[in-house]
Amino acid sequence: MLKSLLKVISSNILIQLIGVLSFPILVLVYTVEDISYLGTFIAYITILSIICSFRAENNLFIIKSIRQCESLAYFLYALSIIIGFILLILLSIASQFLDLADDLIYKLSVFGGVCYAIFNIKYNLLVRNKKENQFIRLKIIRMSLELLAIFLAYLLSFDISIYITLLCLTYLIPSLKKERISKSILLFFAGFNVFKNKISNVKYDFPASLLSVLTIYFPILYFFIIDEKIFSGIYFLLNRFIGAPSLLIAQSFNITLKQYATHEFLTRKSCSHTVNNAANLLLIKMLPLYILSGIAVAVFYKFYLSIYMQETALFFLIVLPIFITRFFFNCFSSIIYVMGLFKTNLTFQCIALFTSTLTLITPMEMETKILYFSFFVSLYYITYTLYILLLGNKEFN
Fold this sequence. Notes:
Elements: H1 2-29, H2 32-53, H3 66-97, H4 103-128, H5 132-156, H6 160-172, H7 181-197, H8 199-225, H9 229-268, H10 272-285, H11 287-308, H12 313-332, H13 334-338, H14 342-361, H15 366-392
């Protein structure tokens, strides 16, 4: 497990270094309002990607047959494209009756949602089939294309909408694979049958995934809607420079844990051995990595964010616990999917969104809102993580 984990983490660190070192270039090209616009777009495509695929790719980890997994993936590719077209048609109809100020970002968001859905489906299929080299290469190619898009934005200084279009393509291009039409049709219908058999899971996991993403991106969307674009942009930058690196490390851990836990659960109906080894590895052996990460965060704030926006010190410190507790939650969250506890996950995600929404919309000073938001969301992640660890040691019949 340690060997696989180190391999995935090292590749993800390389990927994140590319992102961290290149993203400040965007700040030289675009204003904080543009960055807020970009953050809102990323929130939209993340939400729409879940709508396009119904997040049914999570079922890949509870299907024993590799052939069935591949069939389901092809069906979800087609489903994402079909839903994307439907959403574009509905958007075109709505624009005839409603005054949509940002019509372009909505259309780009639909396109981006389809691209991101296809990328996630392919990535999860490769993880499920334990093709480490391939899913690592997939992410490296995508990040390299994003780096190219950033440098083009810097050299040509084009509008933020053009950069967003290129960003969508960085998800689509690495996911493309040529297949015979006849084979694709057969896989589509075979995948549809698999999807029907797993619909009971999808009806819980689809809304749970939507709620989870809304909880993460709600501050960005909320600040953007109430015209606090400074807070929206800064929260997006924090999410990019602290949330994204910690998420990649957590995903590296989560991917390895998911592979071993899936095998153990399918054979023993328990993940206790995998979970206990993972907890020991995460809390003890990865301690040097946490120290280095803390130093990196301090350097980032000292030499970048504090220069970019001097008055963000308090905001930065208040929201930091969210990223820390979310990191540990993301390390173990796959146990819920491995055990197929989709209904339980939906319950927890409802609690998360309700709590985060209530704290931000309650009439209070902005600093007080952010403080309450950070406290309750962090408490939620701690509680859910402890629950997952206890669940991982339970045997299921």
